[in-house]
Amino acid sequence: MLTNLAQQPADALLALIKLHNADPRADKIDLGVGVYRTDTGATPVFAAIKAAEAKLLETQDSKAYLGPEGDMGFVHALMPYVFGAANPTMDGRIDGMQTPGGTGGVRLAVALAKKAGVQRIWMGTPSWPNHAQIFADLGLELKTFNHATKAGVVDMDALRAALAEAGPQDAVLLHGCCHNPTGIDYSHADWDEIAALIAARGVLPVLDLAYQGLGKGMEEDAYGVRRVLAAVPEALIAYSCDKNFGMYRDRVGAVYAMVADPAQLNAVLSNGHALARAAWSMPPDHGAAAVRLILEDAAMTKLWLDELDVMRARMNKVRAKLAEAGSAGAIDLKPLGGQNGLFSILPLTSEQILKLRTDHGIYMAGSGRINVAGLTMGNIDKFIADLATVSA
Ligand code: LMR
Known about the structure:
Elements: H1 12-22, E1 29-30, H2 47-59, H3 72-83, E2 94-100, H4 101-115, E3 120-125, H5 129-137, E4 141-146, H6 156-165, E5 170-175, H7 188-201, E6 204-209, H8 223-231, E7 235-240, E8 252-258, H9 265-279, H10 286-295, H11 298-325, E9 327-328, E10 331-332, E11 343-345, H12 350-360, E12 362-363, E13 369-371, H13 380-391
The chain binds (2S)-2-hydroxybutanedioic acid.
């Protein structure tokens, strides 16, 4: 029976981690998978997480099961940051559950949409490759539109045309901030229009917020999500703490549902619990418990937010330096200065991407996506010079 299973290609993005690790060159540069790095190239555990883990070790008195919803203290503690401190439950219309990472959040959000009757999901491309894989695995039809124009700005015409065709049987997946892979985000005016269009068409929004705080700030990065939620009766929100708490391998995420009438919320969430039970039963506790301890403690919260500010400032410095360089060979680097988060796309051919890897030890996704946090003040000049050589 098992011989029926054909060999599958390794996930291209995750395969880069191993390729980079195996490269003996001292001056290699990892611009692949999306993890934050310091100016020395390290991905340290947040000091706030270390403090929370110490407290957890000291105070945790049981590891007995919590249930498919996970740590609801964690789920609720995040809500003021995501939905706004003034009315985090939108008058009792929003609640959620813990998931294994943002991927678990997206998976559950889309599975809930499908179970509720959604047949098609719209998404701007390029997008995080796992989005399309999850939709395909769930048997949803994917309809795509252009996320950005060649000029490097959001393609609002493409989005308008897509939403004009979409209807109440459809969902639309939108990146809340720090678009992965382009770094090209919607402006406030764009979000205002998008919110109105989604509401007018009756499409179910699925909002993926995986990089809150890595773009312009925790509040600013929530603008789009909050704007859409204010305009529509129902929505699903997938959230990741993997980046903004540096919890990558601990898999810390959540899914939230917003319903029209608070009386519907328990029924919707009970479907989430059932889907989780059948898939992973219960999410891993440790990371979410650490995040909860941070958010329950004002001093640890400040420590975490300060660390997030340092990360954002460093990424902005890298982006400013790239933009300042102006160009590298045929590649215009100026737009990278105005983009957000960890990622930007460089218009490189597959041959050029391979040449950067084999000849210069520079690792990036096959789409030309770079993780700008992989650049440091020590390697950025080499990167720009090698890019110029390859793209000249
Ligand atoms: C990325 O896009 O690099 C991250 O979201 C990591 C992942 O799971 O793909």
